[in-house]
Amino acid sequence: MTVARSAESVHAVIKAYDVRGVVGAQIDADFVRDVGASFARLMRGEGAERVVIGHDMRDSSPGLAAAFADGVQEQGLHVTHIGLASTDELYFASGSLDCPGAMFTASHNPAQYNGIKMCRAKALPVGQDTGLATITDEVIAGVPTYDGPRGTVDEQDLLADYATYLHKLVDLSVSRPLRIAVDAGNGMGGFTVPAVLGTLPNFIIEPLFFELDGNFPNHEANPLDPKNLVDLQAYVKKTGADIGLAFDGDADRCFVVDEKGDPVAPSAVTALVAERELAKEPGATIIYNLITSKAVPELVNELGGTPVRTRVGHSFIKQQMASTGAIFGGEHSAHYYFRDFWGADSGMLAALHVLAALGEKDRPMSELASAYATYASSGEINSTVADAKERTVAVLEAFSGRSKSVDRLDGVTVQLPDSAWFNLRASNTEPLLRLNVEARSQDEVDALVTEILSIVRD
């Protein structure tokens, strides 16, 4: 049995969906080895014989991945290393090899962080309710020793297979020539974009920050923050690109910028991809989370599909993808999920759909996107509060005479007259209250934001 650990230290790192913390202070090789051993025990109990492991470009990733593999082998499971990979390439490996997987990355977090995203075979999620709680308890108490033979290890390079698979899902053969500016943010997009987009003859790639560097010397690899899109926006205009793409650190999320340098809302991308997928399978189910624009379910209904609303968070989306057989799902955070990709998220696959839609039409990205952006929105606004519940009640009381309905699927979502709505959600890990507002006009959005924040931040 491995050494016991304090519950406080383990709970600080093993979170709702993954493992994440500061290397050295919270995560080290011994800790990761224990997590690998417990994960292997869990997967062995479900019949698995092998675990596939990938890692990002952070300095600490190869060593931590090796320690995790050691823990897996100690529990009698075999290991396949795929080396450098994006998170969605790891999901491809899990799906195509039909085995559980572990990806070493802290996504968009700063250089001192690292973490592990784990999945079952076929990229099925592992979250608090589906295995992480068991792993947490074992790492705290000590992971039992396995008496059987040690597992073996091998290496496979799946990058070319990953690119080939994506190309089979989206036909880009009829695309007009496109100039594509891509900001990889020194993350794994600099590794996967050349393999996936750089091999297509009618695309000219204008690369920005493709050098793999886990210290992120140019900007944070988090395109959800507008300040991290500034370089790409300028680069699109400088290069005369038809479109700009920005990937986060582990390249599982993709953000789009039009030819003018203006960001395209992830909700618009969700609607665009949903339309393409419904054309392929009329009547199919589309998943969207509750802070995605109302334009998404409205379009899905108009096209004869079935929109299904879910809570925020990839584990909820993936559960709904599996239970409903949905063909596609999208989130405001630019995570896009595909049934053809084992129900997992792939920013690269979403990018291929956007490029295909743009390449099939002789009009600019700004015009293409405008058809799907029928509402104005605030984006997510965070407020630090001492008592999120008390502030939420205060807001509800202030709007009690104007609200058409209130639901509590995730926080509170308040429907107002003339299609306006807002959602308030408390963070699970920080003293934050998150606000999202949508309305017909930006003036109405701004007025609602001002009113709500005056209560939240009182």
Structure description:
- It comes from Nocardia uniformis.
- Its cofactor is Mg(2+).
- It holds the Pfam family PGM_PMM_I.
- One of its GO terms (biological process) is carbohydrate metabolic process.
- Belongs to the phosphohexose mutase family.
- The protein is an alpha/beta fold.
- It has 4 domains: 151 residues, Alpha-D-Glucose-1,6-Bisphosphate, Chain A, domain 3, CATH 3.40.120.10; 103 residues, 3-Layer(aba) Sandwich (Alpha-D-Glucose-1,6-Bisphosphate, Chain A, domain 3); 94 residues, Alpha-D-Glucose-1,6-Bisphosphate, subunit A, domain 3 (Alpha-D-Glucose-1,6-Bisphosphate, Chain A, domain 3); 81 residues, 2-Layer Sandwich (TATA-Binding Protein).
- It contains 15 helices and 21 strands.
- Strands 1-5-4-2-3-6 form a 6-stranded mixed sheet, sandwiched between helices. Strands 16, 17, 18, 19, 20 and 21 form a 6-stranded antiparallel sheet that branches. The protein has a 5-stranded mixed sheet with strand order 8-7-9-10-11, sandwiched between helices.
- Strand 9 and strand 10 form a beta hairpin.
- Helix 9 runs parallel beside helix 10 and helix 9 crosses helix 12.
- The protein is globular, with a radius of gyration of 22 Å.
- The chain starts with 6 loop residues before the first helix and ends with a helix.
- The model has no long low-confidence stretch (mean pLDDT 95).
